[in-house]
Specification:
Pfam families: ABC_tran (PF00005)
Strand content: 15-25%
CATH class: Alpha Beta
Number of domains: 1
Strand order of the largest sheet: 6-7-8-3-9-10
InterPro entries: AAA+_ATPase (IPR003593), ABC_transporter-like_ATP-bd (IPR003439), ABC_transporter_ATP-binding (IPR050763), P-loop_NTPase (IPR027417)
Domain ABC transporter: 17-247
Structural class: alpha/beta
Number of helices: 9
Largest sheet: 6 strands, mixed
CATH superfamily: P-loop containing nucleotide triphosphate hydrolases
Main location: membrane
CATH topology: Rossmann fold
Subcellular location: Cell membrane
Length: 264
């Protein structure tokens, strides 16, 4: 495969991501109970839900990291499980459990990633330099990843996901434990990516971030989609956090019931 993931391929038809009837069980626990979801091309979708809602499991099945018990996943028109190699060429992934080759420098990690994908020189070297510079890692390029901060690790992992210029990015909590400067840089890069036609699926717990950054939102709980559409459609003129709590907050008791709290 050349420098671009989709090189030699025309644009796919239909949605950039298409999930139908995705199901996953872990023993007696049904983590995902039939997810149906479309993500349009060039759109930025926020996948939100409480802990244990099935967000990470859904993303893992959509990216070929976890085989579903039922249903299908397509990325850029390619069935993830019928043609996994081609599907992986069309996706960039920043997973929840961020594991990097820590004894490589940032520059070496990117170069190694590009060579695994068959990217030719000198295009690879130029892209490595471009990404390190844009993400504020140029000075840290020679530094071992083991010595990177959390924000630096997120940024170099994002650079690895973007290196082959995939049509679709899957990002699982990319802003978690990231400092404000790094978060701003990541937001700017993602906006530029979607502005040029790329598609992003992002999971997050931060409703304000999703409201500000995303075009579309899907709220999931109990392994099912409870609401999906544009951010404005789902919000219905209310703050997204308020809608989210109404949808998934069943059974929650009011803090006012803790009458003993703070008393002496």
């Amino acid at each position: 495969m050349g420098a671009d993931a989709a090189a030699g391929h025309g644009p796919g038809h239909g949605p950039a991501v298409r999930l139908r009837g995705l199901v996953k069980r872990f023993g007696p626990v049904q983590a995902v109970a039939g997810i149906d979801l479309d993500v349009g091309r060039g759109r930025f979708l926020g996948l939100v839900g409480p802990n244990g809602a099935g967000k990470t499991t859904t993303l893992s099945m959509a990216t070929g990291l976890l085989r579903p018990d039922g249903g299908t996943a397509e990325v850029d028109g390619v069935d993830v499980w019928r043609d996994p190699l081609e599907a992986k060429r069309r996706t960039g992934v920043l997973p929840e459990g961020l594991r990097l080759l820590e004894r490589l420098s940032g520059g070496e990690l990117l170069t190694f990633t590009g060579r695994l994908r068959g990217m030719p020189e000198p295009a690879l070297g130029q892209r490595v330099a471009d990404l390190l510079g844009t993400l504020g890692l140029a000075d840290a390029g020679p530094q071992l990843v083991v010595d990177y901060s959390t924000g630096m690790r997120k940024k170099v992992a994002l650079a690895c996901a973007l290196l082959h210029n995939p049509p679709v990015l899957f990002l699982d909590e990319p802003f978690e434990a990231v400092d404000p400067v790094s978060a701003r840089t990541i937001r700017e890069v993602l906006r530029a990516y979607t502005g040029r036609g790329g598609t992003v699926v992002l999971s997050s717990h931060v409703m304000e971030l999703v409201e500000r950054l995303c075009d579309d939102v899907a709220v999931i709980a109990g392994g099912r989609v409870l609401a999906a559409g544009t951010v404005e459609q789902v919000r219905g003129g209310r703050p997204l956090e308020e809608v989210f709590v109404d949808l998934v907050g069943g059974g929650r008791r009011e803090a006012s019931e803790l009458g003993w709290l703070g008393t002496t």
